[in-house]
Design a protein that fits this description.
Blueprint (H helix, E strand, L loop, with lengths): L7 E4 L3 E4 H14 L29 E3 L2 E12 L3 E12 L11 E10 L4 E5 L2 E4 L4 E15 L5 H5 L9 E18 L2 E15 L3 H4 L2 H6 L2 E14 L10 E14 L3 E16 L5 E13 L8 E3 L13 E3 L1 E14 L10 E16 L9 E13 L2 E10 L2 E8 L4
Antiparallel strand pairs: 1-2, 3-4, 4-5, 5-6, 6-7, 7-9, 8-9, 9-10, 10-11, 11-12, 12-13, 13-14, 14-15, 15-18, 16-17, 18-19, 19-20, 20-21, 21-22
């Protein structure tokens, strides 16, 4: 499992990683990342749609001074949980309501219970402070569900093609993932991140009990980490960009506690670009992201494809290995109204998206040769200004899934 390292980069203790793995990433980003100009301050305020709660398509919305809350209740379907009844809401507010450049903070959350006995809870806060000099974001998860484990590697995931008694187990999973960044120069941010997660696996199939990775790390695993990150961000609005670029590089150092204690490192590079097509509300967006693990990584913390934020349509956790990369191209289209709103705006609350994507997992970045196809369509409904409920249907190689969530996948 542990690869020999011949050359190592040291950059003030921030990033420690083999040159041989970083070189292919540098090539990808050299060709994909175009040059951009600095962010035009407040440019999006001039032409973008304004949500008026008295509009003909108005929602139930609770307003308390500077706080807005929009609840929802809807069914969802995914390969992991079957049919689920999902409830939740979107809370938004502006910490300094007098600031013209500060974005509204948002806290979307959801909870659900499904026909196969799964329950989950998710909160994804995005908070903005002091004229956007300070940002806090996070991802909080709780899942208790029947799940499936194919093993580590692309070939392991190919057979069986559907979950069966050889892959089944029950998973209880918690995660608290937080980021804090400070804007030290226009569009440039630096910060720290923290991750705590734990997995308890029970009712393991015979094949799982004999798996080398599970025998090594066990069925109850806790992981603690701290890390550093750098960001370059020219997006006009972080939660639903119409234009701009976002690049993030992070290095996270973990201590794992299972049958044995193990240290390992995760390096993530995330590049996103947004291009306005003629008018606001018509956006071509693309993302390339890689997650690379160094040293011995528990089976629960391998890089995985199939989340609601990458290859939508695949079963979350089926494809896992130390290294992962995926790319997505997505077109987003908000419709125009035949008659204006009361504020004179002609943009509808409804929109459509469509995407094409591909991704791969492997034990080493140079072995990423098996690419999974992915495509999908989605419906958007604006519940608050520039904050959408999303309904996505994705398909892949012998799989499909339907998702309901708030805000865009990236």
């Amino acid at each position: 499992m542990v690869q020999g390292v011949k050359h190592v980069i040291f950059v003030k203790n921030f990033l420690i990683y083999p040159i041989s793995k970083l070189f292919p990433i540098a090539i990808i980003f050299f060709f994909l990342v175009p040059k951009t100009h600095a962010q035009e301050e407040n440019d999006y305020e001039e032409k973008l749609p304004l949500v008026h709660k008295n509009d003909s398509s108005g929602l139930v919305e609770i307003n308390v001074k500077n706080l807005k809350f929009t609840p929802f209740l809807a069914p969802a379907v995914s390969p992991e949980v079957g049919v689920m009844l999902v409830g939740g809401g979107l809370v938004s507010f502006k910490i300094d309501k007098n600031s013209k450049i500060l974005q509204r903070s948002s806290i979307p959350f959801s909870f659900g219970y499904s026909t196969n006995g799964s329950s989950n809870f998710n909160v994804r806060p995005s908070l903005f402070f002091k004229n956007d000099k300070n940002r806090v974001s996070g991802d909080i998860w709780m899942k208790d569900m029947p799940d499936n484990y194919w093993g580590v590697g692309y070939q392991s995931a190919r057979s069986p093609s559907k979950p069966d008694s050889t892959t089944s187990y029950r998973r209880n999973w918690w995660q608290l993932y937080l980021k804090y960044v400070y804007q030290f120069k226009n569009n440039f941010f630096a910060g720290i991140l923290f991750d705590y997660n734990q997995t308890k696996a029970t009712d393991l199939s015979l094949a799982m009990r004999e798996d080398e990775h599970i025998r090594k790390f066990g069925t109850f695993i806790r992981n603690w980490s701290a890390g550093l990150l750098l960001q370059y961000d020219t997006r006009d609005l972080t939660i639903n960009a119409y234009k701009g670029m976002f690049v993030e590089m992070s290095s996270n150092f973990y201590l794992s506690e299972g049958l044995q204690k193990q240290n390992y490192q995760i390096v993530i590079i995330d590049y996103r670009q947004y291009l306005k097509i003629v008018r606001p509300g018509r956006t071509l967006a693309w993302q390339v992201k890689t997650r690379i693990a160094n040293d011995d990584v528990p089976w629960t913390e391998m890089s995985q494809l199939g989340t609601p934020f990458d290859l939508r349509g695949y079963r979350w956790g089926r494809y896992r290995d130390k290294d992962m990369v995926f790319g997505i191209v997505e077109y987003r289209h908000m419709f125009m109204r035949k008659t204006p709103r009361k504020d004179g705006n002609m943009m509808s609350r409804f929109g459509l998206v469509t995407w094409l994507a591909t991704g791969s997992v492997a034990n080493n970045f140079t072995e990423l040769t098996n690419w999974l196809p992915n495509a999908g369509v989605g419906l958007r409904f604006e519940v608050q200004k520039r904050m959408n409920a999303r309904f996505d249907f994705g398909i892949g190689d012998d799989t499909a899934a339907f998702y309901i969530s708030f805000n865009e996948a990236f």
